[in-house]
Amino acid sequence: MHSFKEIVARLVIVANVLIIVETRARYIYQPGPFVECMQLEIPCGGHSKESCNEYCENDGFASGSCNGHCCFCHARNGMLPQIFQRQHSVGPKPSTPSPFNTFLKLETKQIEVTEPEKVETTNLVTAKIPNKRFASLPGNEIFTKPATNRGVSKNRNVVEAEGNVCLTPACVKTANAILENLDESVSPCDDFYKFTCGNFQKDQPIPDDKGAVTLMGSLTDKLMEQLRTMLDTENNAGKSLSYSADLAKTFYDSCRNSDLVNTRGVSPLHDLLKILGGWPVIEGSKWDFTAWSWQKTVSTFRKSGLITDYLVKVTVVPDLKHPSRRILNIAEPVLAFSREQLRNPGFLNAYNQFQTKVAVLLGAEKAQAQLEMASVLKFEEILANISLPRELARGHPLNFHHPMTVAELQSRFPSVEWLSYINSLLPQDAEVDESQIVNVHAPEQLTVLLNAIDKTDKRVLANYLMWRTSSAVISYLSEEAKQIQHEFLGTVSGQRQRKPRWRECVDIVSTTLGQAVGAMYVRRHFDETSRETAIEMANDIRSAFVDILTTMDWMDVDTKRRALGKAAAMKTNIGYPEQLLNEDILRKLYDGLELSPDNFFGNLLNLTKGSTDFSLRKVKQPVDKADWLPFGKPAIVNAFYQPTQNSIQFPAGILQGHFFNKDRPNFMNYGSIGWVIGHEIVHGFDDQGSHFDLNGEVKDWWNPKTKQLFHDKARCIVNQYGSFSYTDKARNVTIPLNGIVSVGENIADNGGIKQAYKGYQSWVRRNGEEKKLPGLKYTPNQLFWISAANNWCSKVRPQQMVEAIQMGVHSPGEFRVRGTFANMEQFAKDFSCPIGTPMNPPTKCEVW
User: Fold this and answer.
1) Which of 99-103, 552-556, 591-595, 641-645 is predicted least confidently?
2) 86-115 burial by CB neighbour count: b if 16+ within 10 A, else e?
3) pTM recorded for the entire structure
4) Residues 133, 771 contacting (CB under 8 angstroms)
5) Which one has a higher pLDDT value, 114 or 449?
6) Which family does it belong to (predicted)?
7) CB 75 within 8 A of CB 24
8) In angstroms, rounded to a whole number, what is the distance separating the alpha carbons of residues 673 and 534?
9) Which residue numbers are catalytic?
10) Which sign does the torsion angle of CA 257, 263, 269, 273 carry?
11) Which residue, 602, 73, 5, 694, is CA-closest to 323?
């Protein structure tokens, strides 16, 4: 339930909306103190229609007309010009005012209000409503007549809201959104997250097809709806589609054809398994192991359009020591789930049931499936134990740089025929010889991994590989198959029902054909003027970071100079790259890709094969620092820092909704997308980005003493966030946050919000202080913090929260707000939080 104050505040906002909407078509003026029902009249007094029109145009209106009694000025684009006390030139001044009506006559609508008190003024008079709780809200005034005629012979009064409150539609909508989430029963100095997002958590239901509901997720939902409408309606007018749009539309239509997908059932997977040599648990004693090898099977995976990273991961990456060239990288396999989950007995039990059900669906005997899939599960546990803990994976990049030739790789790890295996994965035009440089990500780990593979029975290995393939594609089969997967995933995330079919299809198409869908999205939805506003913000925030760097007294002069150079060299990519709208470039990108409107499963395999070909073929190509493809998927709600290019990216999809609106006050934008911009900038200087120089090369550009001070400051962040924990009350389980794994994101959060705040203050100095929002008592600076906290308003199912903590690198939203803002002196000052309160602790952590 909302408090009386909240209800009244929302009524004020609704009234303001009606005033704006109902009066935007026509504003009526009078030079004297005559005010009636939001209308000011200008008696024509014998003047012609032309003179009335000229009068209105001079005041910034679109036009004017005269009805014999009044001059009606018609607003331009529905907005009232900012004209105050302007000397009029049309008609005589009335000697007496008309009586004030107690109804706000908005054309055909009426809003009844209490008879207002009169207030002395020489211009417009605002009357405060007698109800003190109602009247105390900022912006809660109505217009009434002046109490005196003094000065009216020289000035014309303009009906406008209170001067320091913004009543534009964007401001009204923004204020209402804040009130929806705000819980003012909580002190902002005790728990700013609950203060800002408390009612969001109380009032927002979690949809059955989600494990959580978040404001960021709501923006993604909006984006998905935009893409859905675009893909559903494209070509409805009969116009021919571009090559790339036709690919996206064809793939989407094949996915949406659920009748055909259900008719085919699991037969596409059955046929695929036969091509791959059969799944032993299904084949039983007929499966022949004598000529079987995992290398040959994985090679067949590659030719069939399947993922090949289930035992050894082979990719193409930039050479850290020679960043202009690319090399092959040999690394640990991609696990089905996180290391932590695959070591959790409760999770393993549910996972094994899922494995068994899928095997039975595809034709295995249940008892045999239970027996053989138990062996597969044990092998997956072995792989999980071999994999690097997430804490170690955050080590220095050069800890994972061990280059050698293929010949040296063969000598050191002889159990695999490396040259033939690697070439079986590469496209024919990219095959290599024994002199090719490869990087072994973790040599000691690879030794243990290959030994484990050698010691594992072939049947178990084959069952494992066929299981991983089957589980990867089961969601693209019939409803029966998808339901089995959903029942298992529901135990992990708490999700009660599957996403609607259209959402699954939009997700798949926008992920696999990101450039094609992105080009369609930009052409239809992206507001180009938003880019300029966002660029101005990014420049302000980067300048703020430069200012912050110059004040860092813990940095030596040389390290600070290099840091400033890196910040200055950082490239900013906002919206989308120009190449995206060049259809010739997109045609070349997708050249050779074949898709069919009636073969969804086959389309998926073709897309995977084409994408892998594209990635692995780069082993023969030098690194292109100007490559646009890393920034070529704008239809996404996210932002990125690319260390090897020293660049930040803000796709078009995030420049909308809560994060950005060019028509609302800038304290909202700097608090929301501004924090994100600052966050990505700081990633260039966090525990990982700090290893790369201004050119994206791995170099140690830090003075040893300064580096140690940096690590000490980072350790403060690690300890602070590591002290937070989440308690699942239903299961009475408390899970601590991993401060080590999340340290990079937490450093970026802390430095990013400080930059955004400083950048906003710079904007205010140039443009002046902004107006408040209606129905809210908070200052622009306070609303900056409220906007920032709203980024992470969320309501999460316990299972989803546990999964996020165990698998993610970000702290949950609550701790991103509480942890970050508690370190900000500016926040404590703006909300007058006494020292020692939870949001203003005496000891604070600060890196940037």
Assistant:
1) 99-103
2) bebebbebbeebeebeeebebeeeeeeeee
3) 0.78
4) no
5) 449
6) Belongs to the peptidase M13 family.
7) yes
8) 9
9) 680, 749
10) negative
11) 694
Nearest alpha carbon to residue 574 among 515, 683, 649, 643: 649
Q: What angle do CA 401, 403, 404 make, to 5 degrees?
A: 155
CA distances from 792 to 173, 216, 281, 675, 786 (A): 19, 7, 46, 12, 11
| Rg of the Cα atoms in the chain | 32
Residue 188 has pLDDT above 50, yes or no: yes
CA–CA separation, 555 and 709 (whole Å): 8
Helix (H, G, I), strand (E, B) or coil at 167: coil
List beta partners, residue 125: 144
Q: In which band, very low, low, confident or very high, does the pLDDT at 577 lie, cut at 50, 70 and 90?
A: very high
In this prediction, residue 33 carries a pLDDT of 28
Angle, CA of 211, 249 and 588, to the nearest 5°: 110
Give per-residue pLDDT as tens, 62-121.
Answer: 666 665 445 555 554 444 443 323 322 223 333 322 222 222 222 222 222 233 333 333
DSSP state, 36? B
Distance in angstroms (rounded) separating the CA atoms of residues 197 and 201: 6
Whole-number Å distance between alpha carbons of 219 and 576: 18
DSSP-derived letter for residue 776 is -
Distance CA 164, CA 774 (A): 10
Q: What is the dihedral of CA 207, 211, 213, 217, to 10 degrees?
A: -110
pLDDT at 11 over 90: no
Residue 26 pLDDT level (bands cut at 50, 70, 90): very low
Which residues sit opposite 39 in a β-bridge? 36
Q: Are 316 and 618 in contact (CB under 8 A)?
A: yes
Give CA separation, 303 vs 316, 336, 468, 605, in Å. Answer: 18, 22, 17, 10
Predicted pLDDT of residue 364: 95
Q: Are strands 647-651 and 571-575 parallel, antiparallel or unpaired?
A: parallel
Q: Which two tokens stand for residue 352?
A: 């094994």
Domains of the chain: 4-163 (no CATH), 176-204+526-577+628-830 (3.40.390.10), 205-265+501-525+592-623 (no CATH), 267-476 (1.10.1380.10)
Instruction: Identify the bridge partners of residue 440 per DSSP, sorted by sequence position.
Output: 330
Q: What is the pLDDT of residues 368-415, one digit of tens each?
A: 999 999 999 999 999 999 998 888 888 889 999 999 999 999 999 999
